[in-house]
Fold this protein.
Amino acid sequence: MVIEELVRSTPATAASHPGWTIEGILELYALPFMDLMHQAQRVHRRHHDPNRIQLASLLSIKTGSCPEDCAYCPQSSRHDTGLESENLMPIEEVLAAARKAKADGAQRFCMGAAWRSPTARQLDSVASLVAEVKALGLETCVTLGMLKPGQAEQLHDAGLDYYNHNLDTSPEFYGSIITTRQYQDRLDTLGRAQAAGLKVCCGGIVGMGESRRDRAGLIAQLANLSPYPESVPINNLVKVPGTPLDGAPDIDAFEFVRTIAIARITMPLAAVRLSAGRETMDEALQALCFLAGANSIFYGDQLLTTPNPQTGRDAMLFERLGLNTGA
Ligand code: SAM
Ligand code: DTB
Ligand code: SF4
């Protein structure tokens, strides 16, 4: 069986596998659900502790008034979402949040800024933040928009571990969601981050009204990056009133789980993160996502501007499932 062979021959390295074309990925989507889950568990157990979940905490260090027009995003200045804009957060506030995240058990601290692309001065400020957060003993991640030549190197020198920059969807659907930048701009920034020696956190959003082929197209793009991303966040759209996608139809829960399973199979070594959208998922569905190979979550009561499950609720879920977090 072709799929069996592809799954078996996917290398245990971060090198992409030439077999993961859109058509190959659509074949995975077409598998009976139980067979897909079985394949995903096989891959997951070969490369990861199946009972371990990595915790990453998020902080919005600069909120709102973004000039980009991403149709899903509450922080775009083009949408009236009632969000209050904030300037770059003072360093002490960021460090207080990072210390709390560490005390709560997070391994990684991700700082997000609603910028199209940071200026040289903004990047200097973020580089100082990164160095201080790193000194607390946390892995560091930032997401700042597009990087210009030299900026990824500056972040790397400051001690940054990961750069988050999502491809969000397939190249074909991208223009229906964002018009103020091109897919190639995103690929260029990812290339700069990788060339500077940063690890990459790159994934996308499902539930934006895209087709299955678009979801397969996103995964094909991710899996064929060379190397594929170390972290792959799979976000379920958080529908925010005032954004153009507020009324998007819900994605079928099993289609979401399939997407996680396929990210796991095609990028065996990656940390696949069950990202935005957990607030509206019940615990059984989250458990199914972990079974499909998700082994990372955003941990903390808030994502960037929208709510996330309370940490106490997550801790209870881990206990009920016998999951450990390495904390
Ligand atoms: N401005 C930078 C950028 O776009 O790269 C960094 C911050 S931006 C908010 C980071 C990511 O959050 C986006 O790429 C998108 O994948 C995700 N995101 C934003 N709004 C979302 C929503 N409503 N639901 C799910 N994910 C969302
Ligand atoms: C990612 O893939 N998801 C996170 C993080 N990377 C930066 C952001 C989710 C944002 C959800 C909407 C909000 O809270 O503003
Ligand atoms: Fe700006 Fe990032 Fe939101 Fe797009 S996703 S509007 S670039 S903050």
